[in-house]
């Protein structure tokens, strides 16, 4: 009886036919060397939180009232929440022998990870449209990009990202899980959890592939269309105007390139069968953390308005720090 009870506990089952929790394998194969990735991941997460929080706080400056900063504020918020769905749980896993997550918690993590990833791409699409209007229709920019239009665009981005992962998560949730319950990933990744289902998942594969393609292709096509139209408009401008217009797009174009290129690498790592689970996890973590990590740097690097606003924000903090001490 004692052996049976132990087996049931390890498999996370209260009865022979259902799993009550999952075990996240993470990078457990590192054995006694988990502190190096723990410290790297912790520092990266702190920088993501600090950098994006600074962007959000800085953009409360009334001098930064253009639509681009409004969208950037939302992108920074998404980056913070997106990384928070996975990284804290991974960090906790480094500090414990076994990283356990409940079944409801697993599917909530799965859904929000996919949703927020899709939200980030949708907001990048909205920002591409903003750049298109600013460059191709500069005289009508303020009349087109009103506060109401900005709000509708952001609402559309959130609505699209809420819809895309919902069928995938719902199908995965309805599948039976009777063990084993070890998720070979750092978090509840859909493809890793799907392998644990005690049922035929061929429909799941088709549905997930369709909605993954939808969540990437629609933003990708719209962003590409925006930049094709911007390119046509740039070809009709003088050299000075062309350089100025390119500078306004450089940061966004860089972020889009990094985001979609890293997504392609993740897809390849999942399709290449000779990659170990640890390599797939490292690639997935880099994909999840790279864009949120670089966003504050890229957008503030060549943006003088944002740099000056950050300086003003830091100056406001200094007197408060002196008084407190």
Automatic annotation (TrEMBL):
Q: Which domain of life is it from?
A: Eukaryota
GO MF terms held by the record:
G protein-coupled receptor activity; olfactory receptor activity
Q: Name one GO cellular component term.
A: plasma membrane
Instruction: Quote the subcellular location field of this record.
Output: Cell membrane
Instruction: State if Membrane is listed as a keyword.
Output: yes
Ordered alphabetically, the record's keywords are: Cell membrane, G-protein coupled receptor, Glycoprotein, Membrane, Olfaction, Receptor, Sensory transduction, Transducer, Transmembrane, Transmembrane helix
- Give a single Pfam family match: 7tm_4
Q: Which residue ranges traverse the bilayer?
A: 35-57, 69-92, 112-130, 151-174, 209-230, 250-269, 281-301
The record's listing under SMART domains reads: 7TM_GPCR_Srsx
Report the residue ranges that make up the G-protein coupled receptors family 1 profile domain in this protein.
51-299
Q: Which PROSITE patterns match?
A: G_PROTEIN_RECEP_F1_2
| Topological type in the membrane | Multi-pass membrane protein
Q: Which PANTHER family match?
A: OLFACTORY RECEPTOR (PTHR26453)
In Swiss-Prot or TrEMBL terms, this protein is called G-protein coupled receptors family 1 profile domain-containing protein
Q: Which organism is the protein's source?
A: Monopterus albus
């Amino acid at each position: 009886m004692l052996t049976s009870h132990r087996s049931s506990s390890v498999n996370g089952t209260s009865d022979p036919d259902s799993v009550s929790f999952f075990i996240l394998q993470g990078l457990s194969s590192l054995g006694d060397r988990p502190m190096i990735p723990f410290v790297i991941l912790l520092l990266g997460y702190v920088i993501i939180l600090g950098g994006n929080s600074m962007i959000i706080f800085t953009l409360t400056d009334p001098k930064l009232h253009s639509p681009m900063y409004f969208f950037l504020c939302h992108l920074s918020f998404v980056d913070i929440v997106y990384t928070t769905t996975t990284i804290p749980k991974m960090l906790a896993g480094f500090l414990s022998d076994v990283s356990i997550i409940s079944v409801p918690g697993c599917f909530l993590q799965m859904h929000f990870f996919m949703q927020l990833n899709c939200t980030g791409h949708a907001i990048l699409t909205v920002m591409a449209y903003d750049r298109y209007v600013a460059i191709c229709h500069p005289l009508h920019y303020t009349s087109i990009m009103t506060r109401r239009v900005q709000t509708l665009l952001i609402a559309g981005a959130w609505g699209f990202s809420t819809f895309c992962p919902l069928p995938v998560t719902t199908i995965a949730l309805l599948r039976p899980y009777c063990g084993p319950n070890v998720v070979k990933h750092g978090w509840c990744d859909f493809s890793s959890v799907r392998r644990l289902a005690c049922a035929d998942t061929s429909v799941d594969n088709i549905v997930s592939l369709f909605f993954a393609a939808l969540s990437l292709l629609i933003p990708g096509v719209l962003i590409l269309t925006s930049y094709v139209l911007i390119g046509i408009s740039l070809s009709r401008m003088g050299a000075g105007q062309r350089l100025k217009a390119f500078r306004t797009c450089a940061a966004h174009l860089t972020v889009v390139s990094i985001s979609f290129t890293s997504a392609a690498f993740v897809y390849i790592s999942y399709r290449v069968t000779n990659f170990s689970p640890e390599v797939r996890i490292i690639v997935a973590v880099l994909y999840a953390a790279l864009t949120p990590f670089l966003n504050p740097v890229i957008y503030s690097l060549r943006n003088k308005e944002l740099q000056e606003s950050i300086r003003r924000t830091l100056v406001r903090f200094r007197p408060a720090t002196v008084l407190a001490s």
